[in-house]
């Protein structure tokens, strides 16, 4: 087997587990639906117990399974690594993978933009070495160790996304990742059900610095109202602070030009020589927030040794993907080029800051028809949720939106705060909106779909796509 990631001997040494027979694995998987032959299957317990799928995993060609017992229906001489606790075993694999690699590891957290920034860093660093990063938003208590356990020993760079829902989640994951650099994209109202205020969220985001190696670079958003909390934490940890933003930062955004399908940004960045250097970069998606994320990514990349000129050039390779601001043109009539509309799929997540950024992108677009927003509930906002939803009506970008369609009980507060001329449909479920989207889109329109994952706007996205045929630009 080529590209061996784990041998049974190395995995047993890392976890303290017992092997039933020798094996070699080329990857690590937690899902039999996507498992590739040669993978080590990790039998995690979540909604379902992974032990129930071990036999299936081995039948599909798994090299071995990480378990805490021999599952029913699995032979005693099957290739297994038996540990006391499967999640702890996965964490031990992640720690061992981190210890054996030469990679410069960058940790990314923030209320908004973690995944986009992670993918920007993948694009930036890909031209300067071998980069390892999760294909999805694997940023929680099992996602981070899984990402680390999958890291090849010969990686040059690794980008680890670290998220949270409750206090105390980020620090242990950051310590496990043993970071060479840490990046905080933004601090904004999100998960307020679990935090008393925005300051509490800032302190939790700042706890990523507990995993930063001594003297390592902390790349921090200098424009957020809670920047002082971030900077104080960085000083307390002895980090080398790199601020990025529009005012008084080492990485300073000077000008942002939004064009159809593109963002062009000018900035100045202080290099390793202590001098300020001009830099221009382009992104293949319009959005001022994307420019800010790109600036933070450039600062983090250069802080671990990447060449700024190459990094700025390669940032243009990044594109947002499905559910994260991906754009596509859909045609009602493939022959008639005027019978088209544009879809912005930002349906994966939402909080006030990210909705505001998405609306600003919509407002900057220049459709032949209307600017339409289909907005779903923002979840986990706590007692302030009604006010936070209603406040979206007062955003400057909202003035440029022609029609707003609302999905979910919480979005009723926004609907009632909008002028009558802007009020579109108001449905309590995404299923009901999906049934009615054919009545709300016309040729020339640009349609933004944005909401928290739990409101399931992906089904609305799917319904909109089915109105026509996607056109490759």
Termini separation: 40 Å
From the alpha carbons, calculate the radius of gyration and give it in angstroms: 23 Å
Give the CA-based shape: globular
Main structural class: alpha/beta
Strands, count: 23
Q: Can you tell me the CATH architecture of the largest domain?
A: 3-Layer(aba) Sandwich
Q: What is the CATH topology classification name of the largest domain?
A: UDP-N-acetylmuramoyl-L-alanine:D-glutamate ligase
Number of domains: 3
CATH class of the largest domain: Alpha Beta
Mean pLDDT equals: 93
Strand percentage, roughly? 15-25%
* Low-pLDDT windows of residues: none
The H-level CATH homologous superfamily of the largest domain, spelled out, is Mur-like, catalytic domain
Give the helix tally.
15
Strand sequence of the main sheet, in spatial order? 9-10-8-11-12-13-14-15-16
Largest sheet: 9 strands, mixed
Helix amount = 25-40%
Task: Write out key terms for the chains shown.
473 residues; alpha/beta; Udp-n-acetylmuramoylalanyl-d-glutamate--2,6- Diaminopimelate Ligase, Chain: A, domain 1; UDP-N-acetylmuramoyl-L-alanine:D-glutamate ligase; Protein-Tyrosine Phosphatase, Chain A; 3 domains; nine-stranded mixed sheet; seven-stranded mixed sheet; 29% helix; globular; EC 6.3.2.10; ligase; nucleotide-binding; cell cycle; cell division
Question: In brief, what are we looking at here?
Answer:
This protein is an alpha/beta fold. It has helices at residues 8-15, 54-59, 86-100, 114-126, 143-149, 170-177, 198-206, 227-236, 288-303, 308-314, 352-364, 385-390, 412-417, 430-436, 458-465; strands at 6-7, 18-19, 24-25, 27-29, 39-42, 64-67, 80-82, 104-109, 131-133, 157-161, 181-184, 217-221, 240-245, 251-259, 262-270, 276-283, 326-331, 340-346, 371-376, 403-407, 423-427, 446-450, 469-471. A nine-stranded mixed β-sheet has the order 9-10-8-11-12-13-14-15-16, sandwiched between helices.
